Amino acid sequence: MKRKILISIVVILTFLIARYLKYFYGYVVFGEEEWNALDDSYATNLLVYSQIVLVFIVTSILFREKVFEVLGLHKGVLKGLAIGFICSLPMFIGYAFLNGFEFKLDLSLIHRGFIQAGFFEELLFRGFLFGILFYVVGWGFIPAILLPSIFFGLGHLYQAENISEAINVFLFTGLGSAGFAWFYIAYKNLWVVIFLHAFMDLAWDMFQVETTAAGNLTVNIFRFATLGLMIFL
Description:
The protein starts with a helix and ends with a helix. Helix 1 (2-19) runs antiparallel to helix 4 and helix 1 (2-19) packs antiparallel against helix 7. The mean pLDDT is 89. It is mainly α. It has helices spanning 2-19, 21-29, 32-37, 40-63, 67-70, 77-98, 107-137, 141-154, 163-187, 190-206, 217-232. The chain is built from 11 helices and no strands.
C-alpha cells in the first residue's frame, strides 16, 4: 500500500515537472530573453525530447526492467499502425474532398504528427500518467483520467480567442483525452492510441483544417466517423 502511494506521488510530480519544464529552460538554463528568442521548432523539440527522456528515466527507476511493459510499449506496433491508419481513413478522405484534394505534406508535419502529438502526448498522458495510475497503482477509471484530461484540455486553450471558444476547446479535448484512455483499455495496446492520434493530427495538418481543436460540424463529421470506427472495432 505504501509503495503504491509513493508511486502515485512520484508519477504525478513527474508529470507536473514535465508539463512545466519550459520554465526550467526559460528561467534557469537559457534565461527568459534568450529562451523567448529561440526558434519555436527548436524550443518545442527540446521540450518534447527532454520530457520523453524524463518519463523513461523515472519509469526505469520505479520499475527497472519492466519499463516498456509498464508504459504499454512492449508489443503491438504493427497492429497499432494498421488500426490507426485504417480508422483515420474517413478523416483523410473527407478532408481531401473538402479541401479540393489540395494538401501540404513535409517532414515537419510528419514529425509533429507522429512524434510531438502521437508518441509524446500518448506516452505522457496515457501511457505514463493514466496507465500507471490505472493499471499499476489500481486507481479507478474516473479518478485516473481526471488529471490527464484536465491538463490535456488546458494545454489546448491557446487556440481559443474568447471564453466560449475556450470552454468548447477545453471540454472537447478533455473528453477526447478520456476517450483515448478508454481506447487504451479496450485495445490493451498503447501503440493503437499513438498511431490513431498521429494519423488524426496528420490529416488535420495536411489539409490545413482552419479551426480550433473543437472543430466545426463539417470537419467533426469525419472525425466522429474515425472515432466511431474505432469503437466498432
